[in-house]
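This follows on from our talk about sequence and fold. Please put the record directly below this note.
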Amino acid sequence: MLTEDQLSGYRWVMAAIAGLLMTTSFISLTAFGIMSTRMASAFGISSSTLSVYGVDAFSIGLFVAFFLGHGGIFDERLKTGVLVAQIFLIVPQFLIPIFPDPYLLIALRFFQGLMIMMLALFSIELEGWFPPKERARSLAFTLGAISLGSAAGGILSGALVKFSWQQTYYITGIIMVAGAVIYFILARDSQSQRVAISKAKAGKHESAWKNPVVIFMGLIQFPLTWVLFAIGGYLSSYSYHLGYSNAQTSNLIIVWGVSGFVAAFVGAILGDYLVREKTSNREILNSRLLIMTIADIMMALGIILMILIGRFSYYDLLFAAIVNGFLMMFPPNFWALPGNVFPLAIVSSGAFGMGMISNSGDAIGPFVTSSLISDLGWEGVFIIMLVLSIFGIFLNVYLSRTKMPLP
């Protein structure tokens, strides 16, 4: 039976402002990569070294973030968790231009990466506002914003080229603050969800880590997070490697980001359509796994195209980036599932747990990419991504056929 919150039209306001906040937050991902060439002299190191430091530190933070909430400390204080994440993101945005030191940059970019904990927080928050048949669409606003924020970073970096990199940092920081202010003015936690979680936690229940679904759910998204953040962090470097200009590189990032934003809604609509008449959690899981498998296939195909035709022309690389961007069909369906695969008492810790495992790819992918570019070349790095994509496809098929108990 649907709750009062799930019947309220305000649920779409919640989805929209969560998406807005994620968009302003992810400006920090690609904007840094594009601005690194302008920042390098201030930090006294090469632009490539600066990019590696900043992207790798940010990516490690993306992984560590899920340790912060896996114990359930934000279960009944979701907005508090979002506030913590925004402080980690916004404060460094204003400190980096003031203290242009490479080692301090590593620390500040690491703290910025901790904002990814909002993925789990919004998954739980929107679950209280949306029924299963609408859940992926609600999350498409939030998860599509990862790519849209990347595109916004490219747009802003191009539009603000006449300003110094320090001024650009301040301007983007102000935009982040504006997004946070709008969210905290309008956001409301679902009261019915808060009461239900409180009652469920009061009873006897096992640790989320004793539930095998946590491990499997984490593993199926591992290939995607590896590729998503490696591409998000280093697509600009690959474009420069192929000899394309700053303007072309900015446009490439914008196109990839917009493609991912559109793909998130396509995947969400398809996933919600498939589960609209499903009654069991197993049927819902398998329906969403089908869309997630298609997303993995598009991810693999985009990687193949980048290797084979990306060097032929700029428009070939654009096409490959668009195809790869459709990997974003995966996350809305993935993050729509915690309520269907975990008992209510551990839905929060389960979501953080599967995020912790899957988002280890956030840390490993960009780090491996930066480490192996000089040894294996870009083709070798992309082949590793391709193998992981194929592994994800097989893992999805395996999970759809297992008999693991679901609530």
Notes: The chain has one domain: 8-401. The radius of gyration is 20 Å.
